[in-house]
Amino acid sequence: MSSEMLPVCLATPNVGREPGVSDGEEDGQKPSLDAGTEPISKRQMKKLMKQKQWEEQRELRKEKRKEKRKRKKLERQCQLESSSDGSDRKRIRRHGVHSSLRLIIDCSFDDLMVLKDIKKLHKQIQRCYAENRRASHPVQFYLTSHGGQLKKNMNENDKGWVNWKDIHIQSEHYSELIKKEDLVYLTSDSPNVLKDLDESKAYVIGGLVDHNHHKGLTLKQASSYGIEHAQLPLADFVKMNSRKVLAVNHVFEIILEFLETRDWQEAFFTILPQRKGAVPAHKASENSPQDQQPRPEAGGSSSEGEQSKNDPDSPQREEQGQQSNQPGVLSESRPQ
What we know:
Elements: H1 2-10, H2 23-28, H3 42-56, H4 58-82, H5 89-94, E1 102-106, H6 115-133, E2 140-144, H7 148-157, E3 167-169, H8 174-177, E4 183-186, E5 202-206, H9 217-225, E6 228-230, H10 234-237, E7 238-239, H11 248-261, H12 264-271, E8 279-280, H13 281-287
Parallel strand pairs: 1-2, 1-5, 2-3, 4-5, 4-6
Antiparallel strand pairs: 7-8
Helix pairs in contact: 6-7, 6-11, 11-12
């Protein structure tokens, strides 16, 4: 019984076949599949077609990239040939007149700072380096007593520092590198006021972010080494609403500006951030002669939190509102 019905079961019914279409033609309309594979959907078929086109156009794309590179190279060459005015920053930097003045950031206070303050000092140093590189009268820049937490932080977060140019980064103390008679320590605690810059001298900025914890330390160090000390003449030219402390990079930039202009007032008002409310001292005394304040802490007293808007760790981004407890850097902050 079953053997008689077998041919009937194997016969393929001609149901749903379009008229006029043979078996061979119908098979040609579908993608050929190996036995046991799943049917390919329309989406998969499109992907396969795109992949095939991509492979076929590989060489064409390669040629286009070559042409694009050649075109850009020619454009750069034309720009270099036509830019004879030296308007780009690198050209300006090459034509800068180097000053013989040495400016030192003393990093010997590493063990007196927590990691947060070390990071702030690192950012200030970065700013000093950048400003000196593009200054019209770059100074001889020194980092001394470089090591400890500061070096470790720079290795972790700024590996490119080892390739910095036009800077002397030394592990030795500044007193071991420069003659004592050439040194002048900039500290706000000094009774001496700097009137001019002697380019044969080496001026030291204390790299200390101390939050007023170590008052008078930089002056004590200068006295112990028997070197000269002074503060910037900020009080003679400026009256500020905020605390009279400056960040390391502010003092550094003020000195760079003074070397260019030979004008302390212009240097102060060019560098000091607007939020400090700085006004010329003579105008402030005319408006309120009874409101005389003690000499500002300048020329050695530096507060990291008192960064300008362009600083890498601007307080508008990090520490706005903390002016009442800003760290002293160039020398320790005085109580108000």
